[in-house]
Amino acid sequence: MASMAALLLGHGAISDRDHLILQTDPTAGRMAVARDLAAPRDAIKDWQARRETDMGRGRIRAVEASTRALAILGRIAALRDTETGAERDG
Fold this sequence. Notes:
Layout: H1 2-10, H2 16-23, H3 43-56, H4 60-89
Helix pairs in contact: 1-2, 3-4
């Protein structure tokens, strides 16, 4: 995720703030334990779970950050789906 965030920032597609948000591990809490960061994961699902947790705890700024991350990842997923569809259609 960090390399994607750096690429987006480098091309002016996201702000510095969005870059920092995307570099955050949405599965890590304050008492995070080490885990395999190279393992495949569903970033959208991770950010959705983080937003749900933060909403339940009333963390307004964290909810806003999660929402920003989800908006960016949603746009990327939509672009990827569009490209995949164009390749499939020929």
